[in-house]
């Protein structure tokens, strides 16, 4: 019998954990013993962003937002809801473009919010504009 595993970056300490498919909800980090994968969006900054995108084998959907943008604030709870729907197929994360301007520039973010779906370190889809939870989840699944 073969067991599928995926590498998942711990959101708490950054350690890379090998996790059996189907055991994501209960998996704990080998280093810090905290949960490896939770069903809510992860706030990323420069260093953690690169590590999660490059090292995690879970597709990662990133909300590039700004705390001063009305549509971004409206989408926040919808994005959090979508994280529950997409768990554990997709990890959801957020980048505050006003604080992380280098990353925003690297990906040519013109407007917020913009969603970018990453898989195996590569951008595979992007969608500018606010969406509700159902549309976010459907859009992400369509590109997996
Ligand atoms: Zn950890």
Please, could you describe this protein's structure?
The protein has 144 residues and is an alpha/beta fold. It has a single domain, classed as Glutaredoxin. It is built from four helices and seven strands. Strands 3-5-4-6-7 form a five-stranded mixed sheet, with helices on both faces. The protein has a two-stranded antiparallel ribbon with strand order 1-2. The two termini are 26 Å apart. The model has no long low-confidence stretch (mean pLDDT 96). It binds zinc ion.
Short description:
This protein has helices at residues 46-55, 70-86, 101-106, 133-142; strands at 5-9, 16-20, 42-44, 60-65, 91-96, 114-119, 122-128. With 144 residues, the protein is of the alpha/beta class.
**Class based on secondary structure composition and strand pairing:** alpha/beta
The second-level CATH architecture is 3-Layer(aba) Sandwich
Q: For the report, how would you describe the main beta sheet?
A: 5 strands, mixed
Shape: globular
User: Helix-strand pattern, N to C?
Assistant: EEEHEHEHEEH
The tally of helices reads: 4
* Residue fraction in strands: 25-35%
Q: Total strand count, please? A: 7
Query: Low-confidence segments, ≥5 residues, pLDDT <50?
Result: none
Please identify the top-level CATH class: Alpha Beta
Mean pLDDT: 96
The CATH topology name reads Glutaredoxin
Share in helix = 25-40%
How many structural domains? 1
Please outline the helices and strands.
Elements (H helix, E strand, L loop, with lengths): L4 E5 L6 E5 L21 E3 L1 H10 L4 E6 L4 H17 L4 E6 L4 H6 L7 E6 L2 E7 L4 H10 L2
Parallel strand pairs: 3-5, 4-5
Antiparallel strand pairs: 1-2, 4-6, 6-7
């Amino acid at each position: 019998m073969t067991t599928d595993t995926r590498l998942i970056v711990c959101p708490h300490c950054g350690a890379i954990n090998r996790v059996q498919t189907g055991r994501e909800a209960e998996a704990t980090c080998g280093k810090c013993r905290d949960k490896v994968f939770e069903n809510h969006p992860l706030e990323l900054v420069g260093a953690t962003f690169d590590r999660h995108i490059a090292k995690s084998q879970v597709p990662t959907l990133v909300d590039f937002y700004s705390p001063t943008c009305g549509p971004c604030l409206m989408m926040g709870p919808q994005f959090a809801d979508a994280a529950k729907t997409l768990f554990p197929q997709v990890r959801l994360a957020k980048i505050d473009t006003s604080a992380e301007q280098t990353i925003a520039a690297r990906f040519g973010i013109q407007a917020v919010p913009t969603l970018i779906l990453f898989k195996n370190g590569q951008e595979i889809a992007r969608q500018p504009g606010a969406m509700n939870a159902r549309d976010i989840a459907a859009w992400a699944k369509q590109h997996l």
